[in-house]
Amino acid sequence: MDLLNALVALTNFVIVPGLAYGSQLALGALGVTLIYGILRFSNFAHGDTMAFGAMVTILFTWLFQSVGLSAGPLPTALLALPFGILGTIALALVTDRTVYRFYRQQKAKPVIFVMVSLGVMFMMNGIVRFIIGPGDQRFTDGERFVISARTFKKLTGLQEGLAIKTTEALTVITAVIVVAVLFWFLNKTRTGKSMRAYSDNEDLALLSGINPERVVMYTWMIVAALATIAGVLYGLDKSFKPFTYFQLLLPIFASAIVGGLGNPIGAIAGGFIIAFSEVTITYAWKKVLNYSLPDSLAPDGLVQLLSTDYKFAVSFAILIVVLLFKPTGLFKGKAV
Amino acid sequence: MTETMKHTLLFVFVGVMILLEGMTDFLFFSGSWNSALVILNMGLISAIMAIGVNIQWGFAGLFNVGIMGFTALGGLAVVLVSTPVIPAAWSSGGVSIVMALVMGALTVVAAVMITKFMPAGKLRALVLAVVLIAGFFVYRAIFDPAVGSVEAINPALQGNIGGLGLPVLLAWPAGGLLAAGAAWLIGKTALGLRSDYLAIATLGIAEIIIAVLKNEDWLSRGVKNVVGLPRPLPYEVDLQSDPSFVERAASWGIDPVTASTVYVKAGYALMFTVVLLALLWMAQMALKSPWGRMMRAIRDNETAAEAMGKDVTRRHLQIFVLGSAICGIAGAMMTTLDSQMTPGTYNPLRFTFLIWVMVIVGGSGNNFGAVLGGMLIWFFWIKVEPMGILLMELVTSGMAEGSALKAHLLESASHMRLFTMGLILLLVLRFSPRGLIPEK
């Protein structure tokens, strides 16, 4: 019975939050990695693109809520999501046309692109703060839990409760669907294949008649959609605050690099590696150990390896270790 | 008009702007000498940071987005050097904390040695894991109780290990050293890889430094802040009660309160100018020397430089450390100016990316450009807010009183800053990528 309790506590505090956070990171890292693979630079504006997408979705959510539209037990934000995606796609395409295309034609060095993306980051950050303000916004509605701790305890008679938030379940399900569609697109459709060809060898792709501007356009559309979905899921699960999205940049980059920049499968794996490391290292293991160890061995302290304030340090440490020993990432990315 | 003439005029323009700030309250100027000197002082510090970044980016093409972290380390140096010694803290746990840190460092060194000298294989992985895990637990076992006892000492005012009680001016070079040490560690791992990786690694180290400063209360009181740091100049209140100062102020026809505040700020401005000029001179000499030419050769074509027998990675590490040290000095100066250490106020947009805008706008590769960019962009950073409010008042003047949109626009005007800075950066990168004062 005690072992079962330990298992439930572990699921409740580590596995479920880790899965949800990992899915959010994976979606974010997929966007970064696609930009890297096709446009060949690290997009520092990605966190703020996520914030922008989430913001547009929030505005539509509020509109729907005010006219009484709702998705029943699911959050209204799901209905607003397509509009958020459209808005972000528009922004991404306008940015590409006005900003990035010039440097592409000039064949500028990657580091110039990175710098330009800094400027874009500033402007997007400014726009988001200008429209919705720098504060915290909550926009989650609908049913709060798929299963709450109390019902779980009643059902099983265990001491430990297991709570699964609707947003957590939703995050994982959405991520699975999005990733499946993305891989189908990249592997089976003509456009997806041309994107992969362009990413593998630009010159060869150009020779075989692939239009680079079209490839770039599709990439931005996909990245905008991914960023919006990741941003909205993160906002639903935690809360929306522009600065938090900027800070997400570090774990997202860490995920993409750990998996191998430019490699979509690596981005997903990296997202979960980073998420689970953060959660397990900053989790206080006392409860789980108390259940699973005999009384004589039960720990006195919290058995927390690092305080939660250092979760950035965890993703960073993993990043450094990977850079030192396997600079191309676990799944063979493009970058050296 | 010659180049030199044009560049001098640009500097004159910044000077006139700051003078106008002091003299007139027309449009967005405030007409207060205090505010003009505040802008000037932070402008000088920004110029020093811009020189540091320019050395890294303009000389060597290194992309460092962790400036905030090095600045904060400079601030930490002020606390550690200048605050009074707390003997109780040292007798109760300070020594153990130092021992624990040494222990942690030794563990890492041992791990590095093991990877270097043992043959690769399962045995090495096992030994490595055992050393790291054992080291971590020993470290925590010494560290945790020591921290507890240090933080228990007079927690309302101290609760940290205190400083060395040395003159605060010594903290400036100390800040540089601290930042240089951090830069060496990060450069050792990330240099020699792709340029983007250095960017991401520095971004990460900056966040971690801030996280440490916020949470390690034994070090610099964390978010409880250290206030009332020693100052190199007298306090305004003391000046106001000094009869000879009051008399002199009266003979100039200024009231003692204004006179004392302006006196202190002008004193800082003088000190900062001296540091700025010294660093500018050194940077200029370095740029002109064979060493500077080698750096630019490496920047322009790494492969060719390597073929000529230059050790690119080592040179990169060297310049990365130097540039970061300058940022550390500037950070220490800033904390001295504020005479308080507030880790909560460090924000990457303000302390990292703004400095980048300064360097790019001023002209990367040119030290004078960096100084100009630092002063100019700082002036606009301060003044964009009143400008934005003026603009919004103009835009909304036709709207009905009390409409929600008008209220929102007026309220959000202060967020124009980031947007404007991004716009300036993009415009300069696009239309004048060499900046206001281009590299020669």
Would you kindly provide a written description of the structure presented here, covering whatever features stand out?
The complex is a heterodimer of chains A (336) and B (440). Chain A has 336 residues and is an all-alpha fold. Chain A is built from 13 helices and 2 strands, in the order H-H-H-H-E-H-E-H-H-H-H-H-H-H-H. Chain A has a two-stranded antiparallel sheet with strand order 1-2. Chain A is globular. The termini of chain A are far apart. Chain B has 440 residues and is mainly α. Chain B contains 18 helices and 2 strands. In chain B, helix 2 crosses helix 16 (367-396), helix 3 (67-82) packs across helix 14 (312-338) and helix 11 (256-288) crosses helix 12 (290-300). Chain B is globular. The chains are: A mainly alpha (336), B mainly alpha (440). Chain A binds chain B through residues 41-42, 44, 99, 102, 110-112, 114-116, 118-127, 129-131, 133-134, 246-247, 249-250, 253-254, 257, 305, 307, 309-310, 312-313, 315-316, 319-320, 323-324, 327, 335-336, and chain B through 61, 63, 65, 136, 189-190, 193-197, 199-201, 203-205, 207-208, 211, 214-215, 348-349, 353, 356-357, 360, 412, 415-423, 425-426, 429-430.
Give a topology summary.
The complex is a heterodimer of chains A (about 325) and B (about 450).
Chain A: H1 2-39, H2 46-67, H3 77-106, H4 110-132, E1 145-147, H5 149-156, E2 164-165, H6 166-188, H7 190-200, H8 202-207, H9 212-237, H10 242-259, H11 264-282, H12 286-292, H13 311-325
Antiparallel strand pairs in A: 1-2
Chain B: H1 3-23, H2 33-60, H3 67-82, H4 87-117, H5 122-151, H6 171-190, H7 195-215, H8 217-220, E1 226-227, H9 236-240, H10 243-252, H11 256-288, H12 290-300, H13 302-307, H14 312-338, E2 340-341, H15 348-362, H16 367-396, H17 404-412, H18 416-431
Antiparallel strand pairs in B: 1-2
